[in-house]
Specification:
- This is MHCK/EF2 kinase.
- InterPro entries: a-kinase_dom, Kinase-like_dom_sf.
- Keywords: Kinase, Serine/threonine-protein kinase, Signal, Transferase.
- Pfam families: Alpha_kinase (PF02816).
- There is one protein chain.
- Strand 9 and strand 10 form a beta hairpin.
- The strands form five sheets. This protein has a two-stranded parallel ribbon with strand order 1-7. A two-stranded antiparallel ribbon has the order 2-3.
- The chain has a single domain, classed as Protein kinase-like fold, CATH 3.20.200.10.
- It is built from four helices and ten strands; from the N terminus they run αββββαββββααββ.
- It is globular.
- By secondary structure, the chain is α+β, with helices and mostly antiparallel strands.
- The two termini are about 30 Å apart.
Length: about 180
C-alpha cells in the first residue's frame, strides 16, 4: 500500500503545482515564495528466486534523503487539517503551502481525496497517506482516516496561499466562501 500512496501523492502534488503555475501565468505572481517540494522517488524490487519452493520477497526502495534536506519534520498529520506550527519561518511557510495543497487536491478531486501526513526534509517528502471519501472504500493504507476526510471542510483554515489563489477556487467551505 505504501507504494500506491507514494504514486498517488506524486500525482496529487503535481496537480497542485500545475494549478499554481497556470494561475500565476494568467493572474500574476504572489507576493510570497511558492515552496517547491516533491515526494521521494521509490521503486518496488522483487527478489529473484531460483527454486519453486522459495517465496520471492518484495522491497520498497526509496532514494536517500541527504543531509542537505535538514532535519526530518512532520508538516501535517493524517488526523487534522491544521498544519504543525513551527518557529522557523521556512518550515512554517512550507506547512502552510502543504495545507493549501490539500485544499486544491480536495477541490480538484471533487472532494474525493487529498494527501495527508506530509513529512520529510526541506524539499523532499516521504511516507504520505492518501485520505479519501469513504464512498471509495478501502483503497489506501490504514492511514486513510475517514474522519479526516469528513471533517476537512470544517477544519481546514484558509491561509495566505488559499486567499491569494481564491479567484480560481470557488468552493464553499462552512459559512465562508473561499478556496
Amino acid at each position: 500500500m505504501e507504494i500506491a500512496c507514494l504514486v498517488w501523492a506524486h500525482v496529487l502534488l503535481n496537480l497542485v503545482y500545475k494549478f499554481v503555475d497556470k494561475s500565476i501565468t494568467s493572474h500574476g505572481v504572489p507576493p510570497f515564495q511558492i515552496p517547491r517540494m516533491c515526494f521521494v522517488e521509490a521503486s518496488l524490487a522483487i527478489e529473484h528466486v531460483t527454486s519453486e519452493f522459495d517465496e520471492a520477497r518484495a522491497f520498497l526502495l526509496e532514494e536517500v534523503i541527504g543531509g542537505d534536506e535538514g532535519h526530518f519534520r512532520k508538516y501535517l498529520n493524517n488526523v487534522s487539517a491544521a498544519p504543525v506550527s513551527f518557529t522557523n519561518e521556512d518550515d512554517e511557510e512550507q506547512a502552510e503551502f502543504l495545507a493549501f495543497s490539500q485544499h486544491v487536491q480536495y477541490f480538484k478531486t471533487k472532494k474525493m481525496a487529498f494527501v495527508a501526513d506530509y513529512q520529510g526534509g526541506n524539499s523532499i517528502l516521504s511516507d504520505p497517506q492518501i485520505v479519501t471519501d469513504s464512498a471509495l472504500g478501502y483503497i489506501f493504507a490504514e492511514g486513510n482516516v475517514p474522519s479526516s476526510h469528513q471533517s476537512f471542510k470544517t477544519h481546514h483554515q484558509c491561509n495566505r496561499f488559499c486567499k491569494f489563489f481564491k479567484y480560481q477556487l470557488t468552493m464553499t467551505f462552512g459559512n465562508h466562501k473561499g478556496p
